[in-house]
Write a structure and sequence with these properties.
The protein has 231 residues and is an alpha+beta fold. It contains 5 helices and 11 strands; from the N terminus they run E-E-E-H-E-E-H-E-E-H-E-H-E-E-E-H. Helix 4 packs antiparallel against helix 5.
């Protein structure tokens, strides 16, 4: 952003950006950003680029007015001097880039010039799904000794009632599997000794199926079943 035509013996301007909202039957503004103070002593100071979510700036309505107020920072202990302001929408700034500023008397106070303005759309999760994207779920189960022996009631792997790993697998996988067309998921363990594969030492990446060429398991229920079998 750039401003121009300030008249002050010490030029130290900064910008305050306000979001508009309706209340009490009139337009109101609340401040959402204050720029750095320009110390260039130029009548056309430039400011660092800033980023906003459109929700934060204008409630995602690009036709909603945003207010830009300009002040000059005075000596310590003195209030800042109001220089001028303008109210325009983001759509207007995209087209025009230069907006006149008005002082408190309605007179000309220079202009605001927007050097660059970009609207970057970030798709939502549902927009990705509607466009044809799918999730690819992979499951890794921690068998390290810090979890405790599965025979102990205080172990995360305790094979009494549903343990904490089973709760986690059920809660996560039952939701995410709906977004995978074939619902086949690779399931691995780490930090354990997969004796069913002929190992006698700790391994940090082994398929629960026992087949390194086919680690896939169909659906959440089969993941839970295989987990109990291989604990």
């Amino acid at each position: 952003m750039q401003t121009s035509c300030f008249c002050s013996s010490s030029i130290n301007p900064y910008i305050v950006i306000d979001k508009s909202f309706a209340a009490g039957g009139k337009e109101n503004y609340v401040s959402i950003h204050r720029s750095e103070v320009s110390t260039s002593q130029r009548a056309d100071p430039q400011y660092k680029p800033i980023k906003f979510r459109t929700q934060q700036l204008c409630n995602s309505n690009l036709d909603q007015a945003v207010q830009f107020k300009f002040y000059n920072k005075m000596e310590e202990g003195q209030p800042s001097l109001f220089l001028g302001a303008c109210q325009q929408s983001i759509n207007y700034l995209i087209e025009h880039r230069r907006v006149p500023l008005k002082n408190s008397d309605g007179g000309n106070a220079g202009f605001l010039e927007v050097k660059d303005l970009q609207i970057i759309h970030k798709p939502t999760f549902f927009e990705y799904l509607r466009s044809g994207w799918q999730l690819s779920l992979q499951v890794a189960i921690d068998y390290t000794g810090s979890n405790g022996a599965f025979t102990q009631p205080d172990s995360l792997h305790y094979l009494g009632a549903y343990n904490q790993y089973e709760h986690a697998i059920r809660n996560v996988c039952s939701i995410l599997e709906c977004y995978d067309s074939d619902r086949n998921f690779p399931v691995y363990g780490f930090g354990g000794v997969p004796r069913y594969m002929g190992y006698n030492n700790v391994n940090h990446c082994f398929p629960l199926t026992g087949d390194v060429n086919n680690p896939y398991v169909q659906g959440t229920d089969n993941i839970l079943r295989l987990y109990r079998e291989k604990i």
